[in-house]
Amino acid sequence: MECLQRKKESILGFDVDLxxxxxxxxxxxxxxxxxxxxxxxxxxxxxxxxxxxxxxFGRIINDAxxxxxxxxxxxxxxxxxxxxxxxxxxxxxxxxxxxxxELEGYTIGLLGAKEEVVQKAAKNLRxxxxxxxxxxxxxxxxxxxxxxxIKEELKAISPKVVFVALGAPKQELxxxxxxxxxxxxxxxxxxxxxxxWSGMVKRxxxxxxxxxxxxxxxxxxxxxxFKRIFPALPLFLIQVIIEALKEKF
Length: 249
Hints:
The protein is α/β, with parallel strands linked by helices. It has one domain (about 10-249). About 50% of the residues lie in helices and about 15% in strands. A 6-stranded parallel beta sheet has the order 4-3-8-7-5-6, with helices on both faces. A two-stranded antiparallel sheet has the order 1-2. The longest helix is centred in the C-terminal third of the chain and has 17 residues, at about 230-249. The model has no long low-confidence stretch (mean pLDDT about 95).
């Protein structure tokens, strides 16, 4: 296996990896083979906006072992900065990683979402991947006081890859706390992916997926999201344009 090195581009102070989809999977596989733990962040403009206001979250993004560009906003931002980059949807990346875990015999854990959602997601993944070994399943409804219990449970079971669906920045903050004591485990924040894997939420139609506009489809389905996304996305792109101009002149 070719040893891949990270190549990054900065967007408003946050580094984004420039791997292709397949190279990003290979990079994680490389770390799995070497028993090297990772924190994987699937970044979007909203997370960058949060990271600019929340120093702890910002530090976690920049300390992450892999930051993949998830969605058209990041792809456009990189284009503005002169970099052509493949969009890597976090939900597809995670499913590819699950298929790899089944193939190679790596154990996985699922943490997050409602109890019925995470249990149904686990059942569907087992049905889809008969050889997949899911060793840890827990819902995302817990207090800060329970975090130590979860950490001890995970340490005792030691899954090789843990998918955490708590939404940003909560999932990244929790991963950062646990990862320090689990140096051989790979963690990835997957947002609302369990809802889709459980079958309780339908993913955006393929045309939206290909255009990197799943956020737009979700906004149309859940108009309450509109206030959160707008004017955040246009403002983000304006800030990137200003940053790109400053770098040129």
